[in-house]
Design goal:
Elements (H helix, E strand, L loop, with lengths): L1 H12 L8 H13 L3 H14 L4 H13 L3 H15 L5 H12 L3 H14 L6 H11 L11 H19 L3 H14 L5 H11 L4 H14 L4 H14 L2 H12 L6 H13 L3 H9 L10 H13 L3 H14 L1 H4 L8
Helix pairs in contact: 2-3, 3-4, 4-5, 5-6, 5-9, 6-7, 6-8, 7-8, 9-10, 10-11, 11-12, 11-13, 12-13, 13-14, 13-15, 15-16, 15-17, 16-17, 17-18
């Protein structure tokens, strides 16, 4: 018996343990993607990136899956990281960014990235797709503006980083970046509204309101000012001021999905659940599911209107897509 024990022990000592590497996880991720099992594919590819964070191919493949599920901001964030680290080595990133911007409705940006791709890869793999994209956009060449790719890359990095911090309510991290953006890119007006939002939730309520009121004096129909002021006054319990801004929103039906989402979220956050629910239902959810706020406030509106199963389904889907949401309590539980 003693001899057998030694023999068995020797067998175990000769076993070479299987230690999966980045390539293993990448292959599993691609296989899942080809089977349209996107959630599983994302998990495998995130693991591949964790094992080999310097491998741009893994990040590019994950960005493609994010695009497939409508998480365009997340896809762009990965692509800009690759471009920042690799320069023009991975020129496909230009087309992939162009495609994402087209889905987001940012057609001018889409055009610029598509043109950059064709300039760098005139016979590239995505040549036909890029040319077709430019045909669809069909901008007037006479209106083409000068464009500095380095400045645009820098702006994109700022936007994606701020988007992440804002969605996760990390105001202390968002504020300094927004201040830099206002200085570096003064023509991007939405930055000021994001700044006042972060300012308000950082405890500077009066300053935030004053800034939005100043903007509204110059632009009385400014949608984002009405959105922020409705939220600010609601949070402060100033009902009369809140009502004037929420009424302005109830009469507006924006064209772009991101603006539609902001209005729907604002209505839900301030208790206008019937109208909020109707607005959420009209959204192209493939374009907004990368927003944590979509799941948080759509599920809240559904619950408040008595559709508990819909609320739970939305919340659970959001938790699967966004880890930070899974660590929060359901908003209607508080």
């Amino acid at each position: 018996m003693q001899h057998l024990e030694k023999k068995d022990s020797g067998k175990h000592n000769n076993v070479i343990p299987f230690i999966p590497d980045g390539e293993f996880y990448f292959t599993k991720g691609v296989e899942a993607f080809q089977k349209h099992k996107f959630d599983i594919s994302i998990k495998w590819l995130r693991k591949a990136i964790e094992m080999a964070p310097q491998e741009p191919l893994y990040q590019c493949q994950l960005s493609i899956i994010y695009t497939e599920v409508g998480a365009y901001h997340a896809a762009n964030q990965l692509l800009t990281k690759v471009m920042q680290a690799s320069g023009d080595k991975y020129t496909d990133c230009y087309y992939l960014l162009a495609n994402n911007y087209a889905h987001l409705g940012l057609l001018n940006d889409a055009k610029k990235f598509a043109e950059s791709y064709l300039e760098k890869e005139p016979e590239g793999e995505f040549r036909e797709e890029a040319e077709q994209l430019l045909e669809v956009i069909d901008f007037d060449d006479d209106e083409e503006e000068d464009w500095d790719i380095e400045i645009e890359d820098e702006l994109l990095i700022y936007q994606e980083t701020v988007f992440h911090y804002m969605e996760n309510c990390q105001w202390d991290k968002a504020l300094p970046l927004l201040e830099e953006m206002i200085t570096l890119f003064p023509e991007h007006k939405l930055t000021k509204h994001d700044y006042t939002h972060a300012l308000f939730y950082s405890g500077y309520e009066d300053d935030a309101i004053e800034m939005e009121q100043d903007i509204l004096k110059e632009e009385p129909e400014n949608l984002h000012s009405h959105i922020n002021l409705a939220i600010f006054y609601y949070e402060l319990g100033q009902k009369q001021e809140y009502e004037s801004h929420i009424q302005a929103l109830l009469n507006v039906y924006p064209m772009h999905e991101q603006q539609k989402l902001r209005v729907a979220v604002t209505l839900a956050r301030t208790g206008v659940y019937h109208e909020a629910y109707a607005r959420f239902r009209r959204l192209n959810n493939g374009l907004v599911k990368h927003h944590i706020s979509y799941f948080k406030w759509y599920s809240t509106a559904a619950y408040k209107l008595g559709d508990e199963s819909k609320a739970i389904s939305l919340w659970e889907e959001g938790c699967r897509k966004h880890k930070t949401l899974s660590r929060q309590e359901r908003p209607w539980s508080s």
